[in-house]
Amino acid sequence: MNTITNLHRRKLLKYGAIAIAGAITHPVWVKAGDFVNANKASTDFNPDVEIELTQNITDIAIFEGQKTRVWKVTGKVLKGSSDIVDNNDGTYLAPTLRFKKGQKIRLILNNNLPAQSILHWHGLHVPANMDGNPMYAINEGESYVYEFEIRNRAGTYWYHAHTHGVTARQVYSGLAGLFIVSDEQEQALNLPSGDYDVPLVIQDRSFDTDNQLSYSSHMMQRMQGFLGEQIFINGRPDFVLSVDTRAYRLRLLNGSNSRVYKLAWDDDTPVTVIGVDGGLLECPEQHGYVMLAPGERLELWMDFSGRAVGSELTLRSLSFATSTHGGGMGMMGGYGMMGGGMGMGRGGMMGGGMMSVSPLPSGSDYPVIKFRVTQKEQSNATLPKVLTPITTLCMKDAQNAENPKAISLSMQHMSALLNGRSYQMNDIQPDEVMPLNTLQLMEFDNGFSGGGMGMGMMMAMPHPMHLHGEQFQVIKREVNSGSQDNYQTVAAGFVNGGWKDTVLVMPGEKVTILKPFNDFKGIFMVHCHNLEHEDMGMMRDLLVQ
Ligand code: C2O
Ligand code: CU
Ligand code: CU
User: Fold this and answer.
1) What is the pTM of this model?
2) CA 409 / ligand 3 centre spacing (Å)
3) What pLDDT digit, counting tens, does each position of 158-189 carry?
4) Can you spell out the DSSP letters for 59-93?
């Protein structure tokens, strides 16, 4: 057999798209038809834009002295204008990609890492085999070709590794970046653009004395989620944004593994929100502070005009109570334990030192992003009173309006569960099947009914719940009486309007959403976006059919 035939044959076998000699080689959980051409370019797809994304081990200079080893994604435009990819050189951050609604795109992922990996397009409505489900992970030296049309409205989306059991580590090592979509409706608003439209990726990282990223998988780090010692913005420590005296559009992504932020301007300027996960709101809204959980995005309008050149302003994270009961920000780093049969215990049951997993506890008060006014500028940018229209989803249109699909969130012993189940591939249960082209009423229940009594040690923690596929709308937030006081430390900071793909569910809270399952059959995930929780199993596949 000559080499070409041999290679060709090996490829077919490996990709499993075609049955040879009667042997169907694709994994059993993939139904025939779903997988054909999933990871190679198809001839009948004519992309407007084509980008190659290559994952490599790279050493970058983050600090003085020794370089830091990271997992870096580098993009190369094969078709389209070169400014649609910003590689964020010199940082671990994956490229910022910019697309337009309606474009057909081909993304070729090359994995040169010594590990399995797969990328997921967070917030994008794409076919199931383009979604980066962990079952599509590729080995070192392999490629996965994604082809889809951008159906989403303008917004700040993102992408990241979604590899089974190691998503947290891979994202931490660098496999995450922004995926920005624009459309005509948004362009017509003439919001600040170019240098005045600034993406800001918020993450936390820790380093050892050799300047290497350190990631602890200590038991408490996994239960709470990893908390880094230092805040990084756009992949840089000590980030300061130089601004002119004019209005800016700031696109925030919380790309941290588990850290929840309660963001406020340090001079008490109200926070003006213009957009969330799935793009612009109908109208701007003002808050004293805003909550931003892992996976979520917020777009802010900030006008620096009238400020003195040389002055500084900081977006801080303010303190808040993360536990259901008891001490809030005590020795525990803020998370509450509930003792089973005895009813709700008070924070601190497990006591001191072992719980203090980060010198920068979640729920404490610390600076996040610094802005320095460096230049006077005249601009007539004004905040539009109306942004973009949003079709409100109606309860009466839900297929199960009378019978909401409940998803209970729980943590106990060493597991993090959805409806008492841990993640497993190829394990769809009857209640995890979603009829195609329906709207579903769903409830995320984080201990609302006091469930789990008598089940042993339980942890009540914030869970940022994320659904793949189409964006959803938040209908209702309820909190149990025992959690009221602590809840009040965050409640004013929720932006509940607009299209969402991730929603923070605080301890003791129940959040009701309306979620469409249109257009695409196949497997789409639901999971906690605290990446350590996700890796611990707080994730399930939903089958749309
Ligand atoms: Cu951003 Cu399934 O995740
Ligand atoms: Cu996602
Ligand atoms: Cu969680």
Assistant:
1) 0.89
2) 8
3) 999 999 999 999 999 999 999 999 999 999 99
4) EE-SSSSS-EEEEEEEEEEEES-GGGEE--TTSSP
